[in-house]
Amino acid sequence: MATPDHIHDHDSGEGLVPVDEARERVLSTIKPLQPLALPLTEAYGCVLAESLVAERNIPDFASSAMDGFAVRSSEIASATTTAPVELRIVGRAVIGERPEGTVGGGEAFAIATGAPVPAGADTIAPIETCEVAGGHVRVLAPSIGGKHIRPSGEDVRAGETLVQAGRRLQAPELGLLATAGFAHPLVHPRPRVVVLSTGDELIPPSRNPDYGQVRDSNAYTLFAALREAGAVPTIAGIVPDDVNAFKEVVFSHLTQADAFISSGGVSVGERDVVKAAFFRRGEVDFYRVAMQPGMPQGFGKIEGKPYFGLPGNPVSVFVSFETFIRPALMKMMGRRHLFRPEVTARLEEDVTGPIGKTQFARVRVRRTKDGWVAAPTGGRGSNLIATVAKANGLAIVPPGTQTAPGGSQVRVILFRSMED
Length: 420
Description:
This protein is α+β, with helices and mostly antiparallel strands. It has 4 domains: 37-58 and 154-188, Molybdopterin biosynthesis moea protein, domain 2 (Alpha-Beta Complex), CATH 3.90.105.10; 63-150, Molybdopterin biosynthesis moeA protein, domain 3; 190-332, 3-Layer(aba) Sandwich (Molybdenum Cofactor Biosythetic Enzyme, Chain A); 342-414, MoeA, C-terminal, domain IV (Beta-clip, Beta Barrel), CATH 2.40.340.10. Helix content is 18%, strand content 30%. It has 8 helices and 29 strands. The longest helix is centred in the C-terminal third of the chain and has 19 residues, at 314-332.
């Protein structure tokens, strides 16, 4: 006799979508966001959409690297403390101004660090090797041509590429682009993501729950995960188990969202509002993934914008975000590397899971002299959010392995710094 669709052996992977296939379904439809010209302060962390080329030399004038005197090197080549070369001071070069006049034979310009080098001079005699007497300077040591001068184009030559397309703009890049005058680079912007929580039982964290009520944690887990990924999250609030109310909230945020995430309402219960709202429209597909936690998933597009429907349990939300949504956000932002770093670690104790699914076990990873070691942080229940807060990695136990024994090697996705 056939097994009804709503009855499922939770340890079996039969009829479920493998994790890699489910992730590919998502990523194959995701495109980078259209580039925008943003101010440098807003472009921080974004990926450059076009290579930028220096329009002029950086720096674009020769300047002094020392306080001293700008002179001709040939005239002080024989200078010593016992036989100094005396030159007439004919001007002063200061920072931010073009020098008035040139350095001729027997002449010197007083100069400050960073000031433009006047024409006619090819070296700087440091103040430490000079004696000033009235309108003259006695130079006590030679200085070869180019010494203590920062030449034009020393950092970047005109026509040279400053930053390649595809590079994420961080502190050094912002400084370089500011120096070169690119105040509004064209970048892939940060995705604006609207977060919704569904369920009649949910209340805000600020309220005391009555019997059977649950404080909404998923919105804040997602908010933080989105911020950490570089996106711009908006918490749209708690939506009751009402299809029309849910649709109204979603469509009221269309203009301010690049993507949506909801938690809850994607399984097979009578009150699975997300599934009821979008199943008939054909915009969002709902399927079961061979993973634990996080089996029920929804993904599609609403008015061309990605929609991620996640299960309601808090650990399922976190694992689903790391598995599907974070890589999709990286692609939307034009990032070249979509996935978290991984290490191979030795389990300190057994990890047991559903034999037919990929299990993502919460672990605390540390480095020892013998390599990486991973210690489970608690049970496998998808409601145990404290196990995630104690962890810094997700150990991957592949399908076909019911128990990964202590001492065995597993791949671990690192989602938090070792120092945090």
